[in-house]
Design a protein that fits this description.
Four copies of one chain form a homotetramer. Chain A has helices spanning about 15-20, 50-60, 90-105, 130-140, 160-165, 180-195, 210-215, 235-245, 280-300, and strands at about 35-45, 60-70, 75-85, 110-115, 120-125, 145-155, 170, 200, 220-225, 245-255, 265-270, 305-310, 310-315. Chain A is an alpha/beta fold. The first copy, chain A, folds into two domains: about 30-115, ACT domain (Alpha-Beta Plaits); about 120-315, Formyl transferase, N-terminal domain (Rossmann fold, 3-Layer(aba) Sandwich). In chain A, the strands form three sheets. A seven-stranded mixed beta sheet of chain A has the order 7-6-5-8-9-10-11, with helices on both faces. A four-stranded antiparallel beta sheet of chain A has the order 2-3-1-4, with helices on one face. In chain A, helix 7 links the parallel strand 8 and strand 9. In chain A, helix 4 (about 130-140) packs parallel to helix 9 (about 280-300) and helix 8 packs across helix 9 (about 280-300). The longest helix of chain A has 24 residues, at about 280-300. Chain A starts with 14 loop residues before the first helix and ends with a strand. In chain A, about 45% of the residues are buried.
C-alpha cells in the first residue's frame, strides 16, 4: 500500500532553483490554493463513503471529484480518491489532518492528504537519449506538469546543455561496473540535498540497486521501451523486429526489485508494418515512450495512482 | 434533464416473448438480484454526497460503484450515479424509494432508482442494412446486452428471417411519404402493446416525426454513419470520400427534433487511405457503426448516461 | 517461403455446399472475372520490376495494384504482389503461366499466380466459444470474405445449430488425450474430402500435431487471445489481469511447430482499466479477437500475405 | 496536379544559417547520396510501369520503394512514386532528367525528379502558441525531419527566444487589419530572400491572402485544430465542447483559397469525456496537433504526397 501521511519539506532548496521555478506561471496554479486530495485504502465495508463525505461536509468542503474502487464489495479492499475545495485550506490543514484521524482508525485506513498547490519535487535521471527528458521539460515549462524539478542527473554529459539552458542544476555522474556503488551514493546524496520526492527514469539505462529502490519505494517511475510483459530486458526494439509484431509499445511503471516487473501505470502502442527496420521502430517508439511517460508522471503528480500488490489503480 | 422516477410495468408481455427471453442466461444476471442504481442530478452544493451516502449506509447498502460530476462546484449542476447492493432489495424497494424522497426534495434532485435485474425493454428499428441489428442481437444472445427485445420493426421485409429465427416478433411496416403518418401510428401502437422502454434505430433510414420523438423523449438511440458534426445528413460516406478525410467514423446519439444534432453518446473512427473507394468506406464504416451503437446501447441499459442540455454525461 | 505454383481443384464438392455458396452474391465478384494476382519472392537485384511489368504489358494486362518490399536492396530478398486485369483471363491462364516461367527462372523466383475469382476453400475449426466463428460466417454471408466454406469442424457440438442454419456441413469430432491421433485422422480425411485449401482455428482449443501442421504448412491461421509475445500459452486473460496491463490484445498468426510462435499476421489492442475483472477482459477481448481474425483471413484470401522466415509481409 | 520539374536553388543562403544547418548530422543523410525519387501522375493506360521500370533498369538503378495508385484502371488517373538508388547520382542527374523526357511525353506525364539528399527549405509561421513550432524544431534537431529551416516568421515576439537559441533567423512581423497587405509583402520578400520551398503554418492565426496562396500553391501546410470538416473556422475546441463530441482531433492540410477546405494530408483524434473543460480539450488537442503536423511535414519532405483535385494521395 503506498499511501502514507503527507510529508512536508522545510524549504532549503538552492536559491537559484527556487527563483527559477517561480518564473513559470502554471495553468492549474491559481484556483487550487484551497484544493486538497484525500487518498484512502482500507478493507471494504459499508459506511466508508458515508463517513468520509460526512466528515468533509462538516469541514465545509465542496467535493470536486470523487473516485472509488473495490476489489470486491464483500470482503475486498477499498480505494478512494476525493478532490475537494475547502475555504482557507492553509490554516485548516492541520485541523483537517487531526480530525480525520479517528475515521481513519475506525476503518483501518492507509491514507494521505495532499495539497494541490504543493508541488512535488521530481528528479529526472537520463542517459544518452533525450526525447523523454525533453518531453517532460517541455510540458513542465508549459505548465502541464505541476512539479518542481530541482535536479537532473545523468551518467553521460549529453543532456547538460538542454538542462542548464532551463536553469535546472545538472549533475554528470558516470557509472561503470566498478563505480556503481559510489555513483549511487552520490546520487542519493544529491536527491536528499535537493529534497526530491520522486525520481523519473527518463531512458536511464542503468539498473538501480535494491537499496536505492527501497529508499524511494513506489517513488521511482521508469519508462520501458516495449509493451510489457513482452520484451522484458534489453534491446526490445530489436526483439520486436525479430518477432515481427504489428504493434510496438511502451510501458511506464513503478520500479521494484524485479526488472521491468513493477506495477504498470500506463501503456500505449502504435501500428508498424514489415517495412520498418529497427531504426524506424526506435523512432516511432520514441514518440510513444515520451507520451506514455509524461502521462504517467502527470497522474503521479496529481495523486491519481494507488498501488495494490503489483498493480496500479489509476483514478483518471 | 432525463432522470425521472423509475417506471414499472405491469407485465402483460406476449407469452412467447417472455418465455424466450428466459432461455438465455445472462452473465451479469446472477449476482445482481440485490443491486440497484441511483441516478441524481441537481444544483451543486456542499453536502449532497454526504447525505446520499449516509442514507445508503443507514439502509444497509454497500456501494459498489460511485461516480459524480459537477459542471462547476461553485454554482453548477451536479450529477451522480451510485451502484449499490442491498439485502432483500425486492422487499425494500418501495421503502428505499419513499425514504429517499426527503433528501431528493432537500437538494431539488431529479432522480431515478433503477433495479439492475429489471431488464429494460428495447425495440429495434431497422431498414435494409442488417449489420447493426445483428451485432445487437448477437451481443444480446451472448448475454452482453442485458435487455428484453420484445419486438423489431422494419420498413423492409429483409431482416424478417434473421429476427424470427431468434423467436423475436418482427413487424414489417412499409413507409412511403404518403403512409408515413399512418405507419408511425402503427409503430407507436406496437411499442405500447409490447411495453417498450426505449427504441434503437439500427440503421433505420426514416426520419421520425416530432410527435414520435416527444413520446420517447431521450429514449431513442440512433447510429449516424459519420463522425458528427461532420457529414450531417444523408450519404456521409460519399461525402467523406469527396472530402478526402483520413479517418471515417460513426456516432451514436439520442434523437431530438434536429436531425443528427441530439446528444452524442459515443463515437469512434478508423483510419482510411486514398485507396478506399466509397464501397470500401461503407464496409469499414459498418464495423465502426455496429461497435459504437452496441457500446451506446449497453451504457443506456446500465443507466450510465445522463443528459444535460445537448450533451451526455457517461459514467463508464 | 510460402509462394508456390497455384493449385487448382477438380471440382467435386458436395452438391449441397456448392449450391449454397452460389446463393450469396459477393460484392467483389462481378468485376473480378479477369483479375489475377502474381506473388513473387526472390533474391533482390536490378531489373525484376522491369521484367515483370514488361511481361504483363506484353500480355495486355493492366496493373491495378502493385506492392513490393526488399529486405535490403543490395543483397536482400525481394517480395512483390501485382494485381492486374487481363482480357479473357480464363483462356489466357495457362499461356500466362507458361510464358512467365523463363522470367521466374532467370531471377530464381518463388512465385504463384492466383485468380481473383477462384475462391479459396476455407475450413473452420472451433471449440466452445462461437464469437470468432460467427464473425467469419457473418462477413462471409455479407460478401466481405470471398471464400468457400465447405466444412466446419468442432470438438464440441455447441456450434452445430449456428453452422447448419447456414447450410454448411458440420462435423463434431470430440478430442481427448486418448483419441487425439484418431481425431486428427478423421479431421484430415474430411479436409481432403472437402478439398480444403486452408484452415482457420477460430478459438479451437486443441493443439494440432506436427504432422497436421506439416500437411497444411503456412495454411493454418490461429487467433491467440493476447498481444503476442506477451502471455504465450493458456489463460492469457487471467494472466493479463494478474499483471495489471493497461491494454489487452489479440494476435492472428500462422501456426508452426512452436506454440504461439508462428508468423504474426495481425494484432490489435484495446484499453482497459483496473476496474475490469477477468470476465470483462474476456468480453472485451472477444471483440478484438473476432476483428483481428477476420482481418487476417481476408488478407489471406486476397493473397496479400507473404511469409519470410518467421515474419509476414502484408501488402495491404 | 502538383508535380512539376524539380527546382534547384543557386545557393546564396545567409552564411550563418548554412553553417548552422551543417552542425546537425541527419540520420537519413549518409546513405542517401545516390537516392532519388520519381513522382508521376498521368492518365492511366497499360505500359506505364513497364516503361518506367525498364528505363530505371537501363540507367542502372535499383528500385528501393515503389507505390502506385489508379483512380480507375480503365480510364482514370495514375499516380506513382518510385524511390531508387543509382550510382554516381550527382553526375547522372541531368542525363537522367533528359532521358526520361520522351517517356514522360509519351504518357503525358506530370512528373518530378527529386534528390533525397537535397533538403527542402522550410519556413515556419507561428503566432502565440509554440507547441507545434517546438515539435518541428525538435524533430528537426533530432534528424527526424530532413529539411533546412532557413527562417521563422511570427506576428508575435513570443517565439523569438526559442528560435534564436537554435541559431535560426527569426522575424517578428506584426499583423493588424491595416498592415496586413504590407506585412505579407515583407513575409514574401523574406521567403524569397531565404529561398524557401514551402511554408508550414504552425498555429499561425492569420489568414493568408489569395495572392500569397497562389505564389506558394500546394506549398503551404496548415494545422487546423479540429477533425475537419467538423468545426471549420475559429474556436474549434470551444465548439467541440459545446457539441459534446467524444473524440477531438486535428487536421493537417494544404492551404487553398477556401479556409480549412484544402486537401487533407493527415488527421488524428483522441478520446475525451464529459469531464474535460475547454482548457483541457486544448491541452489534449495540442498533443494531437503537433503529432499530426509533424507527420504531414515529414511526408511532404519525403515527396510522399501527390495532390489530385482536392484530395491527397499519400504514399506511406
Amino acid at each position: 500500500m503506498i499511501v502514507s501521511n503527507t510529508h512536508t519539506h522545510v524549504s532549503n532548496v538552492p536559491a537559484k532553483e527556487r527563483a527559477h521555478s517561480r518564473t513559470y506561471s502554471f495553468v492549474h496554479g491559481n484556483h487550487q490554493a484551497n484544493r486538497a486530495r484525500l487518498l484512502i485504502s482500507c478493507p471494504d465495508q459499508p459506511g466508508i463513503v458515508a463517513h468520509v463525505s460526512q466528515f468533509l461536509y462538516e469541514q465545509g468542503a465542496n467535493i470536486v471529484h470523487s473516485n472509488q474502487y473495490s476489489t470486491d464489495p464483500e470482503s475486498g479492499l477499498f480505494f478512494m480518491r476525493v478532490e475537494f475545495d475547502i475555504p482557507d485550506l492553509d490554516t485548516h490543514k492541520n485541523t483537517l489532518h487531526n480530525q480525520f484521524q479517528p475515521i481513519a482508525e475506525k476503518f483501518a485506513m492507509d491514507w494521505k492528504l495532499s495539497l494541490a498547490n504543493q508541488r512535488k519535487r521530481m528528479a529526472i535521471f537520463v542517459s544518452k537519449e533525450e526525447h523523454c527528458l525533453r518531453e517532460l521539460l517541455w510540458q513542465w515549462q508549459n505548465g502541464d506538469l505541476y512539479a518542481e524539478i530541482p535536479v537532473i542527473i545523468s551518467n553521460h554529459p549529453i543532456a547538460k546543455k538542454t538542462v542548464e539552458s532551463l536553469g535546472v542544476p545538472f549533475f554528470h555522474i558516470p557509472v561503470t561496473r566498478d563505480t556503481k556503488a559510489e555513483a549511487e551514493r552520490q546520487q542519493l546524496k544529491i536527491l536528499e540535498q535537493y529534497q526530491v520526492d520522486f525520481v523519473v527514469l527518463a531512458r536511464y539505462m542503468q539498473i538501480l540497486s535494491s537499496n536505492f529502490n527501497q529508499i524511494y519505494k513506489n517513488q521511482i517511475i521508469n519508462i520501458h521501451h516495449s509493451f510489457l510483459p513482452a520484451f522484458i530486458g534489453s534491446n526490445p526494439y530489436a526483439r520486436a523486429y525479430e518477432r515481427g509484431v504489428k504493434l510496438i509499445g511502451a510501458t511506464a511503471h513503478y520500479v521494484t526489485e524485479n526488472l521491468d516487473e513493477g506495477p504498470i501505470i500506463e501503456q500505449d502502442v502504435q501500428r508498424v508494418t514489415h517495412q520498418y527496420d529497427i531504426e524506424e521502430l526506435k523512432r516511432i517508439g520514441a514518440q510513444i515512450e515520451r507520451t506514455v511517460l509524461a502521462r504517467a508522471v502527470s497522474w503521479h503528480l496529481e495523486d491519481r495512482i494507488l498501488i495494490h500488490q503489483n498493480k496500479t489503480i489509476v483514478f483518471e
